[in-house]
Known about the structure:
Layout: E1 3-11, H1 42-54, E2 57-61, H2 62-69, H3 80-87, E3 90-93, E4 105-108, H4 112-122, E5 125-129, H5 132-140, E6 146-152, E7 171-179, E8 185-193
Parallel strand pairs: 1-5, 1-6, 2-3, 2-5, 3-4
Antiparallel strand pairs: 6-8, 7-8
Amino acid sequence: xxxxxxxxxxxxxxxxxxxxxxxxxxxxxxxxxxxxxxxxxxxxxxxxxxxxxxxxxxxxxxxxxxxxxxxxxxxxxxxxxxxxxxxxxxxxxxxxxxxxxxxxxxxxxxxxxxxxxxxxxxxxxxxxxxxxxxxxxxxxxxxxxxxxxxxxxxxxxxxxxxxxxxxxxxxxxxxxxxxxxxxxxxxxxxxxxxxxxxxxxxxx
Length: 204
C-alpha cells in the first residue's frame, strides 16, 4: 500500500494561499500572492527538487492543476522539476472539468476515498501540492499519511489556511525537522490517531 503525502508552503500564521505569484489565487480578495518567492534559495530549492523528482504520481485539485498546467509545460527543458512534473502521472480531483490538456493527466470524478485507495494500490508515493480544497477533503476522510509543511518567517494575517475551520482533531508525530538559512523550516509529520487530553488542574 502506497503513501499519500501532502506538501505545502505556509506562512507562520498558517496561510497557504498563492505562495508563488501575485495573480495565482485572488479568491476572497487575497492580495499578497507571491509571498514565498523572496525566500527562494539554493539550499531549500535542492531539497524541494529531490522531493519532487522522487514521487511516483501527483494528485491535484482543479485550481492548482490549472496553475501548474499553465506554467510547467513551458518551463525550460533543463529544469529537473519541470521534467518530472511534465512526465509524471497526474490525477486531478474535479467535478467541473471535462477535459485535461496537460500530458499524462487523468480526471477523477468519483468518491475521493475510493479514488485515493485505488491510487495507493497503484503507486508507492503519491504527492499532493497546494490544492487547498482537496487537502481539506483528504484530511476529513483521514487519507493523509504524511505532511511535509514548509513554514516561512512571514505573517499574512488572512487567506486560505492549511488547517482551517473544520479540521478533524488529529494527533501528529514529528518525523523530521530541518531549518534553512532563509528562515524557513521544513516539518514532517505523520498522523497517529486521535489526540489525547489531560488537565493541569490542581488536586484538592
